[in-house]
Write a structure and sequence with these properties.
The chain has one helix at residues 2-20; strands at residues 33-46, 50-63, 69-80, 85-96, 101-111, 116-128, 131-137, 139-140, 152-159, 163-168. It is mostly beta strands. It is rod-shaped and about 100 Å long.
């Protein structure tokens, strides 16, 4: 009886050894998930002036266990009711990780319907769920601004996602 267990144990050890030689030939289970989301956003920008924002945003995310990457492009308009200033923004941002900061930039145009200014804004923010809190500084082509607009600002946006698409690679 003991001899039968020894032979059975030896066969098991040899079978594990034989199988371990082919371990590099196993197929890789590498599935990458991409999520594409889009929808409108509404927001409030606070600086020297209060500004209401509306627009649209498109996000795509590469889902991974470690350091998922999220990218976004957005375009919208904003209006300062107090000083009758209209603005257009087009920008992007990206985030590496789950709870990290977002880094981005925007090209902006502001007009009071008699004069207009074009500018650039580096932006840093924090995104949690559908809320995106951003802060930045608008740099305009003309250092002396005739259009009453925010140079340093903080903005809170809510993105209403109405389209989702999943891709599996």
């Amino acid at each position: 009886m003991v001899r039968k267990f020894r032979i059975f144990g030896l066969i098991c050890l040899l079978s594990f050894y034989a199988n371990s030689q082919n371990i590099n030939k196993l197929p890789e289970l590498k599935t990458e998930i991409n999520i594409h989301k889009s929808g409108p956003y509404v927001g409030l920008q606070k600086g020297l002036y209060n500004v209401v924002e509306v627009g649209g945003e498109y996000q795509w995310k590469k889902v991974k266990w470690v350091k998922p990457k999220t990218f976004s492009i957005n375009a919208g308009m904003n209006y300062n009711f107090q000083n009758n200033v209209l603005g257009y923004d087009a920008g992007f941002w990206f985030k590496t990780g789950r709870l990290n900061l977002t880094y981005g930039a925007a090209i902006c145009y502001r007009t009071d319907f008699t004069r207009g200014e074009i500018g650039f804004a580096p932006i840093i923010g924090f995104k949690l769920a559908q809320f995106h809190l951003q802060t930045g500084c608008n740099f305009f082509a003309h250092p002396v601004s005739y259009v009453k607009t925010n140079t340093f600002f903080i903005s809170l946006r809510f993105v209403l996602i109405n389209r989702r698409k999943f891709d599996f690679d």
